[in-house]
Design brief:
OB fold (Dihydrolipoamide Acetyltransferase, E2P); alpha+beta; 5-stranded mixed β-barrel; rod-shaped; 6 helices
């Protein structure tokens, strides 16, 4: 709803003059729409590193267009003089806004992968694990705190156990002999 009203306002402002003046808000509006369309029509061609970058640049161009349009209405700019003299600052604002959107907003579009323990991963006990108490196991080359899933079983040192899950920094393990019987 916001984009059509901006476009209508820009179009009314540009076409009300006797000659057509390509104003900065209209330039940034066209640039923003083109960049957004590039992202929507060519998404399969981008690698994961470049995904959503044209979209973020297009959104920032639309924001710059909106800011310039509102500033032009409020301050009564004459676009003939500002189009070329202040264009460096417009590009600087656009680049800064694009960079900030790419850094802070773009990562929200990607799903993070949750780490899960593989089924029945093996470990070796380093200390005795008494019923309901914690002990130490050697898991993937590191010493971990571990507790037995069954609170009635004692696991002796140097026994093979299977890691069932991780709860915080504690491994939940089951002895190998429970799986054999």
């Amino acid at each position: 709803m916001l984009l059509p009203s901006i476009f209508i306002g820009l179009l009314a402002q540009v076409t009300s003059k006797s000659g057509f003046i390509f104003s900065p808000p209209l330039f940034w509006l066209v640039a923003g729409v083109c960049l957004c369309l590039i992202e929507f029509f060519l998404p399969q061609l981008w690698s994961k590193k470049a995904k959503f970058i044209p979209l973020m640049m297009g959104v920032s161009a639309l924001i710059v267009s909106l800011i310039l349009w509102r500033a032009g209405i409020t301050l009564g700019f004459i676009w003939q003089y500002i189009m070329y003299d202040g264009f460096n600052l417009q590009i600087l604002y656009w680049m800064g806004l694009s960079l900030s959107l790419v850094i802070w907003i773009r990562p929200m579009f990607f799903r993070s992968k949750n780490y899960q323990v593989r089924d029945a991963t093996e470990a070796i006990t380093l200390t005795e694990i008494l019923p309901g108490k914690t002990g130490r196991v050697l898991y993937e080359g590191s010493s971990w705190q571990a507790i037995c899933e069954n609170y009635e079983v004692t696991i002796l040192p140097h026994q093979k156990v299977y890691v069932l899950r991780i709860e915080g920094n504690t491994l939940i393990v089951a002895p190998e002999n429970l799986f054999r019987s």
